[in-house]
Write a structure and sequence with these properties.
With 198 residues, this protein is mainly alpha-helical. The chain has a single domain, classed as Up-down Bundle (Rhomboid-like fold), CATH 1.20.1540. It has ten helices and two strands, in the order H-H-E-H-H-H-H-E-H-H-H-H. The chain has a two-stranded antiparallel ribbon with strand order 1-2. The radius of gyration is 17 Å and the shape is globular. The relative contact order is 0.14.
Amino acid sequence: MWQRILQSPDWRYVGVTIPLMVLLQAIGPEYFRFERDWMSSGEIWRLISAHWVHVGWMHLLLNGLGLVICVSLTTPGWSIKRWLITSLCMGLGVSILVTLYNPEISDYAGHSGLLYGLYVLGALSLYARDRLIAVLVIAAIVIKVLIEQFAPFDFDTGELIGARVIVDAHLYGLLLAIAIALVWTTYTMNHGPTEHSN
């Protein structure tokens, strides 16, 4: 069983991502978080690195656990290359959307915007193998995003992590996942089947 897990690109991605988050958090999130003045300061790396640092250790723990649950539920079987490209595109996309549409946000850190998108994309990959779980995962993400956007209450996770939750990042993650899925579907329809592992 453990050998199969170690050979899985999905779990290898998790096995690199979570230690990377811990390392960046130990160095100091202030060097890596999104900051609105990234254009004038020239600190472009913050557009990507912001999604692998957190406001605190509890925040990191919750997002790390979220990534483990995502892979456990969806087991997308992506190659490492696809994991990296998808994650980098999601992170960059969320940062750009926050820059364009959330002028009130001066700084941002956290994996959850990207993670919401990974849940959706992972569930879409699962759909051919287990439609019920795939639909339930997508429905849960969509419902939670809608509640965050329109309900007159929140889930109080901000108190747990010690900072305000940027719910728009979750919305952007969902929207970017839909866009990536459409691009990927179009690409595979025009270029035939693609790899699923390694």
